[in-house]
Amino acid sequence: MRSWLALLLIVMFCLTPLMGQAEELPLLDFSAVKDRFVSNPRNVKDIGDPFVLAEDNAYYMYATGGPIGFFTWRSSDLAAFEKIKVLKKVNWASGDYWAPEVYRVGDKYVMLFTVRMRENGSLRTGIAFADAPEGPFEDPLDRPLMDYGYATIDATLTWDDDGNPYMIFVRDCSENNVNGHQESHIYGVRLADDLLSTEGDPVLLLKPEGEWETKSGDTRWNEGPVVVKHGGKYYLFYSVNGYWMKEYSVSVAAADAPLGPYVKQANNPLLVYTEDEKGVTVSGPGHNAFFTVGSELFTSYHTHTYPQAPSGNRQLCVDRAGFHSDGTAYIDGPTLAPQLRPLRDIGCRSLLPLATCTGDDQGLLTDGDTCASAASAAWAWQGKNAAYHWETPVAADLLIIYPAAGGALAGTVTVNNSLTASFELPAAGKPGQAVILPFEPLQITDLSVEFTEGSKAGEILLIGE
Length: 465
Fold this sequence. Notes:
The chain is mostly beta strands and 465 residues long.
C-alpha cells in the first residue's frame, strides 16, 4: 500500500511543473480569415472625389469621372466595384462633371454635383433626384441650384438637430482672387426644405491658413467639404493643396452649428501621404466622404494611382474613422495593408469593449483609433501588460494588434492564462500593417498582451463571429 502511495506522489511531483507550463495558442494561417479582409486601393481607378452611399446591404460609389456625365459603381462587399449605369447628362452643362454626392431624403435620392456651364464656362452647383441609388437622376430645375456670380464646386449636405437642411460648398479659386492669391474658400448656406433654393446669404466658414495649407503657392485650397455630426458638434472635413500634389490631404474643423464658427483641429492634417526609403507609397489622399456600416464609421477618399508620378489619375480607397473621448476626430489611414471589412458584413463583432480592463490600457488600446498614420493617441509601454477579463466567456478566433504609425512591435499574447503566442512585426511594411493572429475558435475569459519595452501600440482587436 505504501509503495503505491509513494509512486503516486512521485508521478504527481513530476507532472506538477508540466501542468503549470503554458501551451501554444493554436494559431492558423492567414488564409483561414483572408475573406474577412480587404486592402486599398479598390478596383476603381481614373476617378476622383469618391462618395460612397451604403444602402440596402450594398455600396454605391459616385465620383468625378469624365466629360459625359456621372457613373455609378456598385459593390456587395466594399471590395470589388462594378460600373452599372451612366447618369443623365445635364442640359445646361458643357462638361467637367465633378464631385457628385448622393443622399437618401425620404423616399428619394438626391444628388448634388458640379458642372461647367455651357453659357459662360464657369463652374456651378446643380441638384438632381432619383427613385433609386443607380438613377436615373433628373434635374428638376434645368439650371444651377444657386448662382452667386462666381464659380462654385464640391457641394455637400448636412442637417441641424431640427431637421433643417444646409449646403456647404466651395467658392472656387478660379474666380476668387484674394490679395494676389487664387483661393478656394468654403461657405455654407441654409436650404429650403425642398432643397430647391437657398435662404439667406452664404457664410464664409473656412479658408486656407498656415504653412501646411499653403504649400501649393499662390493658388490655395480649402475644398472637398463634408460634415459629420458627433457629440453635439459639427465636424467639417476638408482637403488642402492641389489635387495633383502628394501633399493633397484631409483636415477637420469643428463648430456648434452648421454655419460655424469653425475651429480647425490642432493636429491637422489627419490624412496625409506616406513614404519609405524607396519613395512615396501613398500620394495625395484627399476629398473624402463618410458612411456608416452598423456602428462603424468609414471614409472614402482618393489617392494617386501612380504615387511617384502624381496626376489626375486617381483611385478609390476606404478606411475607418472616428472620434476620441476628448472630441478630436481621427482617420485610420491611409492604409495599404489588409484591414477588416465592415464587421456587420462578415458577421463578426469586436469583443474587447465587453471586457473589464485588468491591466494597463490607458484608454488607448480600445478607443477605435489604430494610429495608422499618427502616434499622438498611441498607447506607450509603461512596464505593465494590457490585460482584459470577461465574466461570461466570449467566443473568438482572431486577434489583431496595431503598431503606432507603422512602427515595430513585439511581445507575447496569453489567452486564458495558459495559451501563449509570440509576435514580432518589423517597422518596414505597408501603411496600416498589423499583427494578425487567427486561431482555432476558443471560449475566452482572459486575455493578456505583454509588449516589449519601449513599444507603442495603436489598438488591440479581439474578433468573434
